[in-house]
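Researcher: Here's the sequence for the chain we discussed earlier.
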Amino acid sequence: MGLQCGIVGLPNVGKSTLFNALTSAKALAANYPFATKDPNLGIITVPDPRLDELAKLVNPQKILPTTIEILDIAGLIKGASQGEGLGNQFLANIREVDAICHVVRCFENDNVIHVDGSVDPCRDKDIIDTELILKDIETVEKRLEKLKKMAKSQDKEILKNLATAEKILTHLESENPARSLELGDDEQPLLKEMMLLTAKPILYICNVDEESVHEGNQHTKAFKEKVAAENAEVILISAGIEADIAELEDPEERKEFLEDMGLNEPGVNRVIRGCYQLLDLITYFTAGEKEVRAWTIRVGTKAPQAAGVIHSDFEKGFIRAEVIRYADYVALGSEQAVKEAGKMGVEGKEYVVGDGDVMHFRFNV
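Model: Thanks. This is the structure I predict for it:
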């Protein structure tokens, strides 16, 4: 689908180490600012135990999980909105992604330098927020200039956009991100069109030391208090632990390592699921002898468009969808048993696909 999450943060907070653990792409992770100059793009497999359960029941030749894209973006410093450091490049890269994973450093380590000399995730967040807001103010001011000139025509649509832009600018100038501004449905198109950096949905990742991965520490406590009003998810993760887990190829060794660390699963799994939700994505499945496969769609997608994710011909010639709820499939044990129990639904073009639906599409081209 081409939807991307971008990993952002100050230099040396663990972005590239986390990216490597997520993707095994081996991006350069080094103890100096701007080790990542060009963004690294990785494809991440989305962990989904439902896919494994379906595969156990169907015993297919292949199992194909769904994926999302993640971008490791260069570190930002004060003055980025004015081009300091790699600011212009950093901000341009953020503009291209659909959602943001903001990594903050919440661990003490004298061997890993901090660009500002001390560990303070709340201060670090403020630095990035300020630079993004300043860039957004610049964007909105440019749009306002154009709208004011066009408003002389007294066109109602232009006047409405002018009022909306002024509302957004006032909000930004009060040091608030655009995502926290409540706008009406008729105001949303302008916000989307301007591609503001602070309008993107955000997930916070606190990179902690090994001892703090379960309960956190004073840094994570202060950070959670700071972002409490944002209604954003905060995930605790030790990028160092995740890097060690990623090096273990044997499933049993991974399981043993996780048990020794007191973890139920790798932290990156929570990050991936967080990104997936952040992008407003859900999964449906197709299940047959050749393959059991997960497919990615947006929340609210109707059956013909969901079919089009498999092949455009499926959407063009869509006739109907045969739908089994995941819970029914697992409870009854097979597609045939579901049919016999009368639990398979036959749905038309207006059916909104649900998360976990197991689907067959009938089409004619």
